[in-house]
Specification:
- The structure is a homodimer.
- Chain A is built from 15 helices and 17 strands.
- The first copy, chain A, is of the alpha/beta class.
- In chain A, the strands form two sheets. In chain A, strands 7, 8, 9, 10, 11, 12, 13, 14, 15, 16 and 17 form an eleven-stranded mixed beta sheet that branches. The first copy, chain A, has a six-stranded parallel beta sheet with strand order 3-2-1-4-5-6, sandwiched between helices.
- In chain A, a hairpin with a 2-residue loop joins strand 9 and strand 10.
- In chain A, helix 3 packs parallel to helix 4 and helix 4 runs parallel beside helix 5.
- Chain A is elongated, with a radius of gyration of 24 Å.
- The termini of chain A are far apart.
- Chains A and B meet through helix 1, helix 2, helix 6, strand 12 and helix 12 of A and helix 1, helix 2, helix 6, strand 12 and helix 12 of B.
- Strand 12 of chain A pairs antiparallel with strand 12 of chain B.
- Chains A, B: InterPro entries: ACT-like_dom_sf, ACT_dom, Asp/hSer_DH_NAD-bd, HDH, HDH_cat, HDH_CS, NAD(P)-bd_dom_sf.
Chain lengths: 437, 437
């Protein structure tokens, strides 16, 4: 058996500590499988005194991850520091420049600097593995980089943020408000004190940017993603969706179209019968549509120290076996430019909820606006809510429209006209419907 | 870029023809990703004249796959002949002995000779890849061999036969009999003219035998699997299961227990809320429970020429990249012996359907038999079926029992006693309940 592979772990939060523990608990099994013992020989974190429940006594300690990347006696640098730049970026660059292999769980770093880092890694014959950066414990990076490499991918989509899925699931199951579910998610540690990054869809967008590159062999383009979070979703929407046979999920979708590649993150109506509709709670799921394989879906834990450590260690084991894959599936120098398909051309069905003033002709005006924009309606649901008194007062009544396939441009235009006519009491709610089998 | 990797494809049925087509259609993409062009340079099949919709003119033709394995000018031998011995086995052995890499979709061959062939491959520094042998287009072999290699697996289970799942799904959805659904499956090409191999669970058992070895690092042991097919499942069972919150699926399950490893294939009651319950039609799904990752589930097409070709080509691409993995995850010489946990010790809940003679004391006798065997009952459902006249004639009435966790031994003993007392009109139906989250 070869010499031990020496690992340096930068960042000893829940993931880092779990990686150290996994390598200690299952080191023998891993050595047997990969043909090479793996040993953590250096670690880096801010607070040396903190008890992390693992024995670090045999490892060299570095206060600074960049110093560890530059000088530690290691073969693989594991970056679990986090952040799209700063110490994470500096240490990864330093490690790759030395020809060290790098394993990272850092989606923000890859979304921003992925192509650059891939070039650097490939110039130095170093591996850059990042299974844990997308969907935690789910092996979607390897599946796309290797298992589906013979397919032309037409679409990749998924539930990539457990916080949002937890909130949407509880809103539906228990009829609770967004705010109440978010507060619970924070209490349970599923959401940060500042939840913006999760609930506004940015976390999903980072992961999607990586998946898009893997799916289509294009350069990562995270700044061009259409991003809409879940804060505008109400229990009324969830209830109406359910009555119409849909669930609402925050999806990240990348799809090849005639005009380029769409990358979009938004609340999405998915048919209840679809597999993705049935992913509940903090779980993640990613689906890939390939021309030969059809659709493959992977489901599992998208976060958590132990699940994420499972992916980090799989990346390490690949390096131990000598398995080298282009960082983004295709060699970085050969990636195609990303050609963006703008959202206005997005084609699909739409759910529209309007608060319509209860007066003669209002509904006819709405119907005319839709017809003028060439939008056909699949369903129209108007149900009076509230008491006889509220009807007497002519309070706005909710009207739900489901369109047949049309374009984003047409819908936006129609809704602008409807608003300008003064027949609705509030800005319309609009949720895209994803075509799924 | 390196020299082209030369492929010999033995067997040109739907899968073989799809592999040739995939390599022709996506050859450039594959070469870019794996760093090496891949080219089919030899083929073998019985009938040279048949039109397979692909251009074979540039390839050397062999009538005999063994001759091709022995003498063709190739780097990889792709075995798509089928069968657990004969030409498939002979050609694979011949290829490995020459040091050729082998890719196969042949589950029967691996279930029977997998350890032997793995030893042979590893002695000759050859790869033996078989992603397509388990669950068609789903990348479960790579996931277990590589992505989850850091985990101690406690259980792997799945829906591994699309024919059975199609039949069970239609029986539930449309209330049709087993026979009617089987006939439809045959008409649609989902089932063979002789469906025994599928519906009696043997196909599932072959795939399970491979998964067990990958999960636990043990030698393949396909002869010791407990196998029970779906022919005894009635619409009455499916209906009763549904009322109690379950679906019936044919599962293959391998599970570590205190006394060894259980390998079992049988109709299984799974909670409707579980992910596996929601896999409908010809789809396959495999779930792996690992100590770090938790549960990961992969869903996709388990059969079909194109989906299977996707997996065959992924195996080829791995070889093109130079990725070498022990055939069964662990080097074959280091696999542990398989220690069988007998079915009598199997612990779980049970569904029992009895046809009870409608006379005083019958039910008390059944309850006493269960109590004597120390079996606690979670539910008892007795609903008179048929007309007042049938009740008048004291025809047997169905009684459904759901037990709490007990052992197979206790259940079998209790059911034997119940039958010996003459209170039931037919052999009891017994379906195991799988504990799932």
């Amino acid at each position: 058996m070869s010499d031990a592979l020496r690992i340096g772990v930068a960042g000893l939060g829940t993931v880092g500590a779990s990686v150290v523990r996994l390598l200690q608990e299952h080191g023998d099994q891993l050595a047997r499988k990969s043909g090479r013992p793996v040993r953590v020989s250096a670690v880096s974190a801010r607070d040396r005194g903190r008890d992390r429940g693992v024995d670090l006594s045999s490892m060299a300690w570095f206060d600074d991850p960049v110093a560890m990347a530059r000088s530690a006696d290691i073969d693989i640098f594991v970056e679990l520091v986090g952040g799209e730049s700063g110490a994470a970026e500096d240490s990864v660059r330093a490690a790759l420049q030395r020809g060290l292999h790098v394993v990272t769980a850092n989606k923000a770093l890859l979304a921003k600097h992925g192509v650059d880092l891939a070039l650097l890694a490939e110039q130095h014959n170093a591996c850059l593995n990042y299974e844990a950066a997308v969907a935690g414990g789910i092996p979607i990076v390897k599946t796309m980089r290797e298992s589906l490499s013979g397919n032309a991918v037409s679409r990749v989509y998924g539930i990539l943020n457990g916080t949002c899925n937890y909130i949407l699931t509880r809103m539906e199951d228990e009829g609770l408000s967004f705010e109440a579910c978010l507060a619970d998610a924070q209490r349970l540690g599923y959401a940060e004190a500042d939840p913006t990054f999760d609930i506004e869809g940015f976390d999903t967008a980072h992961k999607l940017a990586i998946l898009t590159s893997l799916a289509f062999g294009t350069k990562i383009s995270s700044d061009t993603i259409y991003v809409e979070g879940i804060t505008s979703i109400t229990t009324a929407d969830i209830h109406a969706a359910s009555e119409l046979g849909y669930r609402i999920k925050l999806l990240g979708v990348a799809q090849r179209t005639e005009s380029g590649i769409e990358q979009r993150v938004h609340p999405t109506m998915v048919p209840k019968s679809s597999a993705i509709a049935r992913i509940d709670g903090v779980l993640n799921a990613v689906a890939v549509d390939g021309d030969f394989v059809g659709e493959v879906i992977l489901v599992g834990p998208g976060a958590g120290g132990k699940a994420t450590a499972s992916s980090v260690v799989a990346d390490i084991a690949d390096i131990a076996r000598g398995d080298e894959t282009p960082v983004l599936g295709t060699p970085a120098a050969e990636l195609d430019d990303y050609v963006r398909a703008g959202m206005r051309k997005h084609a699909g069905g739409y759910y529209i909820r309007l608060a319509v003033y209860d007066r003669p002709g209002a509904f006819a005006e709405i119907a005319n606006c839709m017809a003028d924009a060439d939008i056909s309606l699949e369903s129209i649901v108007q149900r009076r809510n509230g008491s006889a008194a509220s009807i007497e007062r002519a309070e706005p009544q909710p009207v739900i429209l489901i369109t047949y396939e049309t374009t984003e441009e047409a819908v936006k235009k129609a809704l602008d006209v409807i608003q300008s006519k003064g027949v609705v009491a509030a800005a319309p709610q609009m949720i895209r419907i994803e075509k799924l089998t």
